[in-house]
Amino acid sequence: MLYPRMVRVRQLFDVPPPIKDIPTAVRQTLKRLKLASDIKPGETVAITAGSRGTANVAIIMKTVVEELKATGARPFIVPTMGSHGGATAEGQVDILRHFGITEESMGVPVKSSMDVVKIGETLGFPVYLDRFASEADHIAVVARIKPQVGLTIEIGSGIHKMMAIGLGKHKGASTYHRAMIHHGYPKVIQHVGREVLKRAKIAFALGIVENAYAQTAKIEAALPGEIERKENELLRSAKSWMMRLPFKEVDVLIVNEIGKNISGDGMDTPIIGRFTDPLDHTTQPKITRIIVVDLTDQTYGNAVGIGMADFATKRLVEKIDRHATYVNALTGLAPEVARIPPYFDSDREAVDVALSTIGMIEPESAKMIRIRNTRDLGEADVSEAYLPLIKKRKDLVQLGEPKELQFDRQGNLLPLEATGP
Fold it and tell me: For the whole model, what pTM was predicted?
């Protein structure tokens, strides 16, 4: 089969630059809260730590720990990730370790348990809180804020979701997802978050926003009474800085890796245009076929999101931890995201099949895009069919000349290496 030749393009997103001094940015925003007025020496503070691959997360967490210690408090870290890590205490600690968050690196205990306590009710169902967090004198919520399919601009994925799904652990996440069948995602997340703010001892929240290059662009802290308003503001920034594919019309999209550290859905749904709002015809890309090639190491075999692809590879499927994947998908009442599509022994076979299922388009003329993952879209390989469009776009820079697709002896695509700044 003849393949389209590919050329590297760099996207020029109109976004703020990354924060140069992360510790100083964290200290400055926390200083405004005057934590010492509420957190007394000797009191304990549970700090949330999620399962997403947030940029600079270890540095941010370490600085929060240091600032709390400076007040005389005794902070500790609580894994807050719903059903991720196979819904086990040990699995969630292991995920944090992969992000550089350990007792040794943070200098404080990491207390992990799947036990929860009921702290209240909302919309007719119970609200749960991690047992260790419930026993602390205070709770500090640290969360990256970003848009998420099914959640409104007022909520998104961030502080409220961390208070609900994260601090609710597996039992809470399962309960809330069942409630979403009747009440919808945004309403449940908002109401549970408000109940946690009312019943739990939330001292403050720290919201993190990344720009389109997955760089830390904004860090802001908020007291309990400010959290909902502040999260709204930060989410608007996150949406305006959101990454995107370089083109909306795509015959074949090759995604090198998927994983929970990339997105809660394995792949960011607004990026790929799958499982999104069917009424949104303005921002969704139209992609005929999606190939997923591999899993990230940091997803620990959780292949949630593979069900959004049309084709996969044998090496990805062989890495799947069925228990971790099924627990996560079924907790979210979304078995479809764990469905395994047709998969093939090599990347070449998957590409061949994908190109043969795009209609009356000759393979060498296909509009094909290859990306590392949906979180790293600063550079992408695109096919020659896009060249006329590239020349008209001021936000795209062509890097080099078109080249043939490169496969190794096993028929797998050679790594998509970065070209540098």
Answer: 0.85
